[in-house]
Amino acid sequence: MEGRNETHEGRILRLTGAAALFVVLGAWVILQTPSTAVAWVVGFLLLTIYLFVFEVLPVDVAAIAIMVLLGLSALFYPYMGLSAALVPDGALFDGFKSNAVMSIIAVMIIGAGLDMTGVMGVVAKFIMRLGGSSESRIISVISSSVGVISSFMQNVGAAALFLPVIGRISSRSGIAMSRLLMPMGFCAILGGTMTLVGSSPLILLNDLIDSANMNLPADQQIARFGLFSVTPIGLTMIFVGVLYFIVLGRWVLPKSKALKTDASMSLSYYKKTYGLNFTIVEVQVPNASELVGKTLGDFETRFNVRAVAMLSQGVSKHGAGYLPLSETVEGLDILALVGDVDSIDAFIEKYDLIQAKKINRLSEIINPSQSGLSEAVVHPSSPLVGSSARDIRLRSEHGMSVLAVIRGEEVVSIGQDVRSMPFVAGDTLVFYSNWKDLNDFEDQRDMVVVTSNYPREKNRPNKVGIALFSLVVALSLVLFTSLPLSVSLLVGALGMVLGGVLNMEEAYAAVSWKTVFLLASLIPLGMAVELSGTAKWIADLTLTALDGWPAWQIQLAVAILATLFTLVMSNVGATVLLVPLAINIAIGIDANPALFALTVALATSNSFLIPTHQVNALIMGPGGYAVKDFIKAGGIMTVLFLLVLMLMLTWFY
Questions:
Q1: Mean per-residue pLDDT for 345-369?
Q2: pTM exceeding 0.90
Q3: Residue pair 544/647 in contact by the 8 Å Cβ criterion
Q4: CA–CA distance, 559 with 521 (Å, rounded to integer)
Q5: Distance between CA atoms of residues 651 and 653, nearest Å
Q6: Disulfide check for 238: which of 147, 170, 219, 615 has CB 3.0–4.6 Å away?
């Protein structure tokens, strides 16, 4: 969408004007086409671009609509002036069984399994330690890591594996997913240029060279490329990509609202409903503070505050099993405190505590994805009736910090020694806890937990061995066998299910079906572009226009042509079509044919402008991106890619 404030009438006017422009452009282009089939395919291409760029429909719906229209050509082709359907019989749904789509499904399941066992949480913590809470440092660590991984496995697989990691980092750091996913996705694509197994076009390159050599004389044979022949180019690409987002990220990345790590999303509800003006802050206890040596029981009720987490000598203390009233505060401890604003301010001033600007050192614990406020009601048959929170050690034994009790119209809060109040049937309790403890407490059925929309995260750390074994087996099959990528990864996904890491419902839920339908529905369009002769017509037209140009300019034109082709058809199809043409052009102008072939194989990874690349389609939903976001950030990245490509190829070859 162009903007949240655009009126309905303004949107209709904008879409109508753009449609009229596309119709005029399409009519002119179609008049230049050599055949009716090419004319129809060009029309479908322009319609796809119009639907994507102006977001007339959601991109997945637009892709499905194009696929259906192509399918209808099987019924109406006699009336369209065609001799056959634009897509062969039985091939319309080939996208749903394609290697790329099945690979994406498998990797999403593998990623969910790793996340379920806590592996991704460990990775997220490691990245957070390296990157801290700085957006630029986190982008650097994530993007470079994914880029390197993409050099030996398919880039969409690397990107999918890191999706849950970025989700955790986003919730813990307060940085919006949209600020992290696009740099990661772009660097995953760039990482595919680092080795000859990093992307499908580079894997195909030597085979295409061998095919060309069969028709070339002995003195014009083209040498094959080695596994690491392109590594200097790929490393430079990743470096430039990371640097681009560090320097220009604040302007080119969408300014989405960041996740709040102070849990204020739930605090506002309790203020409005019960008048509880709670806030959550992080403080550090200086060595000279009078708070040093005191226990939680010494000050919590007196000052109307509650400690819900503590970091002491590098040990994190929160949840069930921690923070009894006898817990002693030491110098340099980090505390997360809950209380009303005035009480928190008075407490900080009294003990000369250092308040952080936001939750930082404890952000892995105090964030909406991990913990928050909740409500529960004491039912008449509860064994807790007559007991108090202090009696049953509700915080230290169950991880539930009682902040208030609502009894009828009376609200009893922290400073009124709420922990010593015996519970009666009908009491509503307001807690602060992590979601796992709340889920465990709800399962005990001693109270009726009213809060229903909290994250019920299921962890199966006992299955971590099976999850890692499944991942290693899948990666080994990818790297050391000739099995298709999809089969290799499905072995890992199946291992996750058979090993009990995930059940089938969880496996299905792990798949982003929007991504699957987007990619699978676009594959028939690429098929039509290739089979109708549209791709060859565009290539011949462009190269004819460049006749007589210097070799480096023709090489640049070949790179631009490969870039444009890969936006509307598969990069494999673009490579297969353009490599032979590029080799013939190079021989005709007495240039290096190996260099021109490599130019095509690398330039088909220059796919950043629109979400037609598998990686871009993968991150579009979780990042909440619009097509215009890719155009904005991807436009500059596309130019940088071409610039680095030409400079590095000239330098090394």
A1: 88
A2: no
A3: no
A4: 26
A5: 6
A6: 147
